[in-house]
Amino acid sequence: MRVAVIGGGASGTMAAGYLAERGAETVLFEKNEKLLKKLYITGKGRCNLTNSCTADEFLTNVVRGGRFLSSSLRGFSPSDTMSFFEEHGLPLKTERGNRVFPLSDKSSDVIKTLARYLDRGGVKVVLNAEIGGIDPRTEGGFWVKYGSEKLPFDAVIVATGGVSYPTTGSTGDGYRFAARTGHSLVERVPALCSVAVKEDIGELEGLSLKNVSAAAYADGKKLCSEFGEMLFTDDSLTGPIILSLSSRINRFAPEDLTVEVDLKPALTVEVLDDRILRDFQENLNRDFKNALDALLPQSLIGYVIRETKIPPNKKVNEIKKEERKALVKTLKGLTFHVKSLGAIENAIVTSGGIELSSVNPKTMESKVARGLYFVGEVLDIDALTGGFNLQLAFATGVAGAKGIISKVES
Fold this sequence. Notes:
Elements: E1 2-6, H1 10-21, E2 25-29, H2 37-41, E3 50-51, H3 55-59, E4 62-64, H4 66-75, H5 78-87, E5 92-95, E6 99-102, H6 107-121, E7 124-126, E8 131-136, E9 142-146, E10 149-153, E11 155-158, H7 173-180, E12 185-191, E13 195-197, E14 208-218, E15 221-232, E16 236-238, H8 240-249, E17 257-262, H9 269-281, H10 298-308, H11 321-332, E18 334-341, E19 349-354, E20 372-374, E21 382-383, H12 388-409
Parallel strand pairs: 1-2, 1-11, 2-7, 11-20
Antiparallel strand pairs: 3-6, 4-21, 5-6, 8-9, 9-10, 12-19, 13-16, 13-18, 14-15, 14-17, 15-16, 17-18
Helix pairs in contact: 1-6, 1-12, 4-12, 9-11, 10-11
Protein backbone atom coordinates (compact mmCIF):
# COMPACT_ATOMS: atom_id res chain seq x y z
CA MET A 1 0.00 0.00 0.00
CA ARG A 2 1.48 3.31 -1.13
CA VAL A 3 -0.07 6.36 0.54
CA ALA A 4 0.36 10.10 0.03
CA VAL A 5 -0.35 12.42 2.94
CA ILE A 6 -0.71 16.03 1.82
CA GLY A 7 -0.04 18.47 4.64
CA GLY A 8 2.54 18.23 7.39
CA GLY A 9 0.54 19.69 10.26
CA ALA A 10 -0.76 17.91 13.35
CA SER A 11 -3.28 15.65 11.60
CA GLY A 12 -1.01 14.87 8.66
CA THR A 13 2.07 13.94 10.68
CA MET A 14 0.04 11.78 13.04
CA ALA A 15 -1.60 9.99 10.11
CA ALA A 16 1.69 9.50 8.25
CA GLY A 17 3.48 8.14 11.31
CA TYR A 18 0.64 5.73 12.10
CA LEU A 19 0.59 4.43 8.52
CA ALA A 20 4.35 3.92 8.27
CA GLU A 21 4.50 2.23 11.67
CA ARG A 22 2.10 -0.36 10.29
CA GLY A 23 3.99 -1.03 7.10
CA ALA A 24 2.48 1.34 4.54
CA GLU A 25 4.87 3.07 2.14
CA THR A 26 4.13 6.65 3.14
CA VAL A 27 5.09 9.93 1.50
CA LEU A 28 4.33 13.14 3.38
CA PHE A 29 4.15 16.28 1.24
CA GLU A 30 4.52 19.65 3.00
CA LYS A 31 4.43 22.98 1.11
CA ASN A 32 6.55 24.79 3.72
CA GLU A 33 10.27 24.49 4.31
CA LYS A 34 9.56 22.59 7.54
CA LEU A 35 6.82 20.57 9.19
CA LEU A 36 4.31 21.69 11.81
CA LYS A 37 4.72 25.48 11.47
CA LYS A 38 1.30 26.20 12.95
CA LEU A 39 1.93 23.85 15.86
CA TYR A 40 4.98 25.91 16.74
CA ILE A 41 2.84 28.94 17.65
CA THR A 42 0.01 26.97 19.28
CA GLY A 43 -0.71 27.89 22.89
CA LYS A 44 1.54 30.96 22.63
CA GLY A 45 4.46 28.69 21.86
CA ARG A 46 3.70 26.24 24.67
CA CYS A 47 1.46 23.90 22.63
CA ASN A 48 -1.73 22.94 24.44
CA LEU A 49 -1.85 19.57 22.74
CA THR A 50 -5.03 18.08 24.21
CA ASN A 51 -7.49 18.29 27.10
CA SER A 52 -7.46 15.64 29.81
CA CYS A 53 -11.14 14.75 29.88
CA THR A 54 -13.41 11.93 28.80
CA ALA A 55 -14.71 11.70 25.25
CA ASP A 56 -18.19 12.68 26.44
CA GLU A 57 -16.86 15.75 28.26
CA PHE A 58 -14.77 16.57 25.24
CA LEU A 59 -17.76 16.58 22.91
CA THR A 60 -19.45 19.32 24.95
CA ASN A 61 -16.61 21.58 23.80
CA VAL A 62 -17.03 20.76 20.12
CA VAL A 63 -18.90 23.54 18.35
CA ARG A 64 -19.46 21.80 15.00
CA GLY A 65 -19.21 18.16 14.04
CA GLY A 66 -19.78 16.59 17.44
CA ARG A 67 -21.78 13.61 16.22
CA PHE A 68 -19.42 13.11 13.28
CA LEU A 69 -16.36 13.15 15.59
CA SER A 70 -17.71 10.77 18.21
CA SER A 71 -16.19 7.67 16.59
CA SER A 72 -12.73 9.11 15.95
CA LEU A 73 -12.50 10.57 19.46
CA ARG A 74 -13.31 7.23 20.99
CA GLY A 75 -10.80 5.58 18.68
CA PHE A 76 -8.04 8.00 19.72
CA SER A 77 -9.08 9.77 22.90
CA PRO A 78 -7.34 12.53 24.85
CA SER A 79 -5.82 9.87 27.11
CA ASP A 80 -4.51 8.08 24.00
CA THR A 81 -2.88 11.32 22.84
CA MET A 82 -1.24 11.77 26.24
CA SER A 83 -0.04 8.17 26.26
CA PHE A 84 1.32 8.54 22.73
CA PHE A 85 3.52 11.52 23.57
CA GLU A 86 4.69 10.15 26.90
CA GLU A 87 5.54 6.77 25.35
CA HIS A 88 7.51 8.62 22.68
CA GLY A 89 9.59 10.41 25.28
CA LEU A 90 7.75 13.68 25.91
CA PRO A 91 6.82 14.35 29.57
CA LEU A 92 3.51 16.18 29.97
CA LYS A 93 1.72 18.26 32.60
CA THR A 94 -1.93 19.16 33.13
CA GLU A 95 -2.92 22.70 34.07
CA ARG A 96 -6.09 24.65 34.84
CA GLY A 97 -9.09 23.55 32.80
CA ASN A 98 -7.47 20.13 32.15
CA ARG A 99 -5.21 21.71 29.53
CA VAL A 100 -2.27 19.45 28.68
CA PHE A 101 1.15 20.89 27.82
CA PRO A 102 4.66 19.50 27.39
CA LEU A 103 6.47 19.68 30.73
CA SER A 104 9.09 21.87 29.09
CA ASP A 105 6.49 24.44 27.94
CA LYS A 106 8.10 24.26 24.50
CA SER A 107 6.08 23.50 21.37
CA SER A 108 9.39 22.68 19.68
CA ASP A 109 9.60 19.56 21.86
CA VAL A 110 6.21 18.39 20.57
CA ILE A 111 7.44 18.96 17.03
CA LYS A 112 10.65 17.01 17.68
CA THR A 113 8.62 14.12 19.10
CA LEU A 114 6.42 13.93 16.00
CA ALA A 115 9.45 14.27 13.71
CA ARG A 116 11.13 11.30 15.45
CA TYR A 117 7.90 9.33 15.03
CA LEU A 118 7.99 9.94 11.28
CA ASP A 119 11.69 9.12 11.05
CA ARG A 120 11.42 5.85 12.98
CA GLY A 121 8.58 4.70 10.77
CA GLY A 122 10.47 5.52 7.60
CA VAL A 123 8.10 8.19 6.30
CA LYS A 124 9.49 9.95 3.23
CA VAL A 125 9.07 13.66 3.90
CA VAL A 126 9.03 16.01 0.90
CA LEU A 127 9.31 19.68 1.89
CA ASN A 128 8.62 22.77 -0.23
CA ALA A 129 6.12 20.56 -2.05
CA GLU A 130 3.33 22.45 -3.79
CA ILE A 131 0.72 19.91 -4.86
CA GLY A 132 -1.02 20.84 -8.11
CA GLY A 133 -3.93 18.42 -7.88
CA ILE A 134 -5.26 14.95 -7.15
CA ASP A 135 -6.81 12.91 -9.98
CA PRO A 136 -8.29 9.40 -9.98
CA ARG A 137 -6.39 6.65 -11.81
CA THR A 138 -8.34 4.33 -14.09
CA GLU A 139 -6.69 1.33 -12.46
CA GLY A 140 -7.58 2.57 -8.96
CA GLY A 141 -5.92 4.98 -6.62
CA PHE A 142 -4.83 8.51 -7.52
CA TRP A 143 -2.31 10.59 -9.36
CA VAL A 144 -0.76 13.30 -7.22
CA LYS A 145 0.56 16.20 -9.27
CA TYR A 146 3.88 17.36 -7.86
CA GLY A 147 5.75 19.84 -10.03
CA SER A 148 5.97 18.39 -13.50
CA GLU A 149 5.39 14.86 -12.22
CA LYS A 150 2.29 12.74 -11.70
CA LEU A 151 2.98 10.28 -8.89
CA PRO A 152 0.82 7.16 -8.40
CA PHE A 153 -0.64 6.30 -4.98
CA ASP A 154 -3.13 3.73 -3.75
CA ALA A 155 -4.68 6.18 -1.28
CA VAL A 156 -4.37 9.88 -0.44
CA ILE A 157 -4.96 11.67 2.86
CA VAL A 158 -5.65 15.41 2.59
CA ALA A 159 -4.53 17.20 5.76
CA THR A 160 -4.03 20.72 4.47
CA GLY A 161 -5.80 22.65 7.24
CA GLY A 162 -8.05 25.68 6.83
CA VAL A 163 -7.26 29.26 5.84
CA SER A 164 -6.27 30.68 9.23
CA TYR A 165 -2.66 31.80 9.64
CA PRO A 166 -1.82 31.45 5.93
CA THR A 167 1.87 32.14 6.62
CA THR A 168 1.99 28.68 8.21
CA GLY A 169 0.82 27.11 4.94
CA SER A 170 -2.94 27.02 5.56
CA THR A 171 -4.12 28.54 2.29
CA GLY A 172 -7.13 26.37 1.48
CA ASP A 173 -5.52 23.89 -0.91
CA GLY A 174 -7.61 21.05 0.45
CA TYR A 175 -10.84 22.82 -0.46
CA ARG A 176 -9.68 22.98 -4.06
CA PHE A 177 -8.83 19.28 -4.06
CA ALA A 178 -12.21 18.45 -2.49
CA ALA A 179 -14.24 20.56 -4.90
CA ARG A 180 -12.48 19.01 -7.88
CA THR A 181 -13.42 15.54 -6.68
CA GLY A 182 -17.09 16.45 -6.25
CA HIS A 183 -17.37 17.49 -2.60
CA SER A 184 -19.58 20.28 -1.33
CA LEU A 185 -18.02 22.96 0.85
CA VAL A 186 -19.49 24.82 3.82
CA GLU A 187 -18.64 28.52 3.84
CA ARG A 188 -15.42 29.18 5.73
CA VAL A 189 -15.72 31.69 8.59
CA PRO A 190 -13.40 32.69 11.44
CA ALA A 191 -13.59 30.84 14.76
CA LEU A 192 -11.90 31.64 18.05
CA CYS A 193 -11.35 35.23 17.01
CA SER A 194 -11.85 38.78 18.26
CA VAL A 195 -15.17 40.61 17.88
CA ALA A 196 -15.11 44.16 16.50
CA VAL A 197 -17.84 46.44 17.88
CA LYS A 198 -19.55 49.58 16.64
CA GLU A 199 -19.03 51.49 19.89
CA ASP A 200 -15.98 53.72 20.37
CA ILE A 201 -13.95 51.75 22.92
CA GLY A 202 -10.53 53.20 22.25
CA GLU A 203 -10.25 54.46 25.82
CA LEU A 204 -10.60 50.85 27.06
CA GLU A 205 -7.69 49.50 25.02
CA GLY A 206 -5.56 47.14 27.11
CA LEU A 207 -8.16 46.75 29.88
CA SER A 208 -8.49 43.18 31.11
CA LEU A 209 -11.54 42.01 33.06
CA LYS A 210 -11.61 38.84 35.13
CA ASN A 211 -14.58 36.91 36.53
CA VAL A 212 -17.09 38.53 34.19
CA SER A 213 -19.67 36.90 31.96
CA ALA A 214 -20.46 37.73 28.36
CA ALA A 215 -23.58 36.69 26.48
CA ALA A 216 -24.30 36.92 22.76
CA TYR A 217 -27.74 37.78 21.39
CA ALA A 218 -29.21 37.63 17.88
CA ASP A 219 -32.22 39.87 17.39
CA GLY A 220 -32.70 39.89 21.15
CA LYS A 221 -32.57 36.10 21.57
CA LYS A 222 -29.81 34.77 23.80
CA LEU A 223 -27.50 32.41 21.91
CA CYS A 224 -24.81 31.57 24.44
CA SER A 225 -22.80 32.88 27.36
CA GLU A 226 -19.33 32.39 28.82
CA PHE A 227 -17.70 33.19 32.18
CA GLY A 228 -14.09 34.14 32.74
CA GLU A 229 -11.63 36.67 31.38
CA MET A 230 -11.88 39.15 28.52
CA LEU A 231 -9.98 42.18 27.32
CA PHE A 232 -10.31 45.18 25.04
CA THR A 233 -8.31 46.32 22.02
CA ASP A 234 -8.77 49.70 20.36
CA ASP A 235 -11.90 48.52 18.50
CA SER A 236 -12.61 44.94 19.54
CA LEU A 237 -13.47 42.58 22.36
CA THR A 238 -11.15 39.62 22.78
CA GLY A 239 -9.79 37.26 25.44
CA PRO A 240 -10.85 33.70 26.34
CA ILE A 241 -14.61 34.15 26.77
CA ILE A 242 -14.94 36.31 23.66
CA LEU A 243 -13.01 33.78 21.58
CA SER A 244 -15.45 31.09 22.69
CA LEU A 245 -18.45 33.30 21.91
CA SER A 246 -17.09 34.02 18.43
CA SER A 247 -17.15 30.34 17.52
CA ARG A 248 -20.81 30.10 18.45
CA ILE A 249 -21.98 33.23 16.63
CA ASN A 250 -19.93 33.12 13.43
CA ARG A 251 -22.82 31.83 11.30
CA PHE A 252 -25.03 34.82 12.16
CA ALA A 253 -25.11 38.16 10.35
CA PRO A 254 -23.01 40.61 12.42
CA GLU A 255 -25.63 43.36 12.20
CA ASP A 256 -28.06 41.11 14.13
CA LEU A 257 -25.66 40.48 17.01
CA THR A 258 -25.01 42.13 20.34
CA VAL A 259 -22.73 41.15 23.22
CA GLU A 260 -23.72 41.97 26.79
CA VAL A 261 -21.06 41.92 29.49
CA ASP A 262 -22.13 41.34 33.08
CA LEU A 263 -19.44 43.07 35.12
CA LYS A 264 -20.78 41.64 38.39
CA PRO A 265 -22.12 38.15 37.58
CA ALA A 266 -21.78 36.93 41.19
CA LEU A 267 -24.30 39.54 42.38
CA THR A 268 -28.03 39.58 41.72
CA VAL A 269 -29.65 42.86 40.72
CA GLU A 270 -30.94 43.29 44.27
CA VAL A 271 -27.62 42.53 45.95
CA LEU A 272 -25.76 44.81 43.55
CA ASP A 273 -28.22 47.63 44.21
CA ASP A 274 -27.63 47.22 47.97
CA ARG A 275 -23.89 47.28 47.37
CA ILE A 276 -24.17 50.52 45.39
CA LEU A 277 -26.35 52.08 48.09
CA ARG A 278 -23.66 51.33 50.69
CA ASP A 279 -20.98 52.82 48.47
CA PHE A 280 -23.10 55.89 47.89
CA GLN A 281 -23.68 56.33 51.63
CA GLU A 282 -19.91 56.58 52.05
CA ASN A 283 -19.61 59.12 49.23
CA LEU A 284 -22.71 61.31 49.62
CA ASN A 285 -20.96 64.62 48.95
CA ARG A 286 -18.71 63.42 46.14
CA ASP A 287 -19.30 63.70 42.41
CA PHE A 288 -20.74 60.57 40.81
CA LYS A 289 -17.57 60.09 38.74
CA ASN A 290 -15.54 59.83 41.95
CA ALA A 291 -17.83 57.38 43.74
CA LEU A 292 -17.24 54.21 41.70
CA ASP A 293 -13.60 53.43 42.53
CA ALA A 294 -14.50 50.47 44.73
CA LEU A 295 -16.82 49.05 42.08
CA LEU A 296 -14.92 49.35 38.79
CA PRO A 297 -11.43 49.62 37.33
CA GLN A 298 -10.50 53.27 36.93
CA SER A 299 -10.21 53.02 33.14
CA LEU A 300 -13.78 51.71 32.85
CA ILE A 301 -15.53 54.30 35.03
CA GLY A 302 -15.90 57.03 32.42
CA TYR A 303 -17.29 54.63 29.82
CA VAL A 304 -19.83 53.16 32.25
CA ILE A 305 -20.96 56.62 33.40
CA ARG A 306 -21.69 57.67 29.82
CA GLU A 307 -23.75 54.52 29.32
CA THR A 308 -25.88 55.33 32.38
CA LYS A 309 -26.60 58.88 31.08
CA ILE A 310 -26.04 60.17 34.62
CA PRO A 311 -24.09 63.48 34.64
CA PRO A 312 -20.57 62.65 35.88
CA ASN A 313 -20.40 65.75 38.11
CA LYS A 314 -23.76 65.13 39.77
CA LYS A 315 -23.47 64.78 43.54
CA VAL A 316 -24.11 61.28 44.81
CA ASN A 317 -26.74 62.55 47.28
CA GLU A 318 -28.72 63.90 44.32
CA ILE A 319 -28.84 60.63 42.38
CA LYS A 320 -32.39 59.34 42.16
CA LYS A 321 -33.55 55.74 42.46
CA GLU A 322 -34.23 55.49 38.72
CA GLU A 323 -30.71 56.65 37.98
CA ARG A 324 -29.32 54.07 40.37
CA LYS A 325 -31.35 51.42 38.56
CA ALA A 326 -29.78 52.59 35.30
CA LEU A 327 -26.34 52.07 36.84
CA VAL A 328 -27.27 48.57 37.98
CA LYS A 329 -28.62 47.75 34.53
CA THR A 330 -25.44 48.96 32.89
CA LEU A 331 -23.21 46.99 35.23
CA LYS A 332 -25.25 43.83 34.66
CA GLY A 333 -25.46 44.26 30.90
CA LEU A 334 -22.87 46.53 29.32
CA THR A 335 -23.98 46.26 25.69
CA PHE A 336 -21.86 46.23 22.54
CA HIS A 337 -23.15 46.00 18.97
CA VAL A 338 -21.15 43.67 16.75
CA LYS A 339 -19.57 45.23 13.70
CA SER A 340 -17.72 42.17 12.44
CA LEU A 341 -15.69 39.18 13.53
CA GLY A 342 -11.93 39.29 13.27
CA ALA A 343 -10.33 38.45 9.92
CA ILE A 344 -10.29 34.73 9.17
CA GLU A 345 -6.57 34.97 8.46
CA ASN A 346 -6.01 35.88 12.12
CA ALA A 347 -8.53 33.46 13.63
CA ILE A 348 -7.14 30.59 15.69
CA VAL A 349 -9.09 28.08 13.59
CA THR A 350 -11.24 27.99 10.47
CA SER A 351 -14.89 27.07 10.84
CA GLY A 352 -16.49 25.52 7.78
CA GLY A 353 -14.89 23.36 5.12
CA ILE A 354 -15.67 20.01 3.58
CA GLU A 355 -19.30 19.00 4.11
CA LEU A 356 -19.31 16.15 6.66
CA SER A 357 -22.11 14.19 5.00
CA SER A 358 -19.68 13.29 2.20
CA VAL A 359 -17.11 11.72 4.57
CA ASN A 360 -17.27 8.45 6.52
CA PRO A 361 -16.96 9.42 10.22
CA LYS A 362 -15.33 6.12 11.18
CA THR A 363 -12.59 6.11 8.56
CA MET A 364 -12.48 9.71 7.20
CA GLU A 365 -12.79 8.24 3.69
CA SER A 366 -14.65 10.21 1.08
CA LYS A 367 -18.00 8.79 0.08
CA VAL A 368 -17.57 10.49 -3.28
CA ALA A 369 -14.05 9.36 -4.21
CA ARG A 370 -13.03 6.06 -2.63
CA GLY A 371 -9.44 5.98 -1.45
CA LEU A 372 -9.42 9.71 -0.73
CA TYR A 373 -9.41 10.75 2.93
CA PHE A 374 -9.86 14.12 4.66
CA VAL A 375 -8.59 14.82 8.18
CA GLY A 376 -8.20 17.79 10.50
CA GLU A 377 -9.22 21.39 10.00
CA VAL A 378 -10.01 20.95 6.29
CA LEU A 379 -13.28 19.37 7.48
CA ASP A 380 -16.26 21.36 8.78
CA ILE A 381 -15.27 20.77 12.40
CA ASP A 382 -14.13 23.10 15.16
CA ALA A 383 -14.05 23.32 18.95
CA LEU A 384 -13.38 25.75 21.77
CA THR A 385 -9.97 26.62 23.20
CA GLY A 386 -8.27 24.32 25.65
CA GLY A 387 -6.48 21.73 23.48
CA PHE A 388 -9.67 20.53 21.82
CA ASN A 389 -8.83 21.50 18.24
CA LEU A 390 -5.42 19.82 18.29
CA GLN A 391 -7.02 16.70 19.71
CA LEU A 392 -9.47 16.72 16.79
CA ALA A 393 -6.51 16.89 14.42
CA PHE A 394 -4.76 13.95 16.05
CA ALA A 395 -7.94 11.86 16.35
CA THR A 396 -9.10 12.34 12.76
CA GLY A 397 -5.54 11.78 11.51
CA VAL A 398 -5.40 8.43 13.27
CA ALA A 399 -8.93 7.55 12.09
CA GLY A 400 -7.93 8.17 8.48
CA ALA A 401 -4.79 6.07 8.84
CA LYS A 402 -6.75 3.27 10.51
CA GLY A 403 -9.26 3.39 7.66
CA ILE A 404 -6.50 2.75 5.12
CA ILE A 405 -4.80 0.02 7.16
CA SER A 406 -8.11 -1.79 7.68
CA LYS A 407 -8.46 -2.08 3.90
CA VAL A 408 -5.03 -3.66 3.64
CA GLU A 409 -5.76 -6.12 6.43
CA SER A 410 -9.23 -7.11 5.20
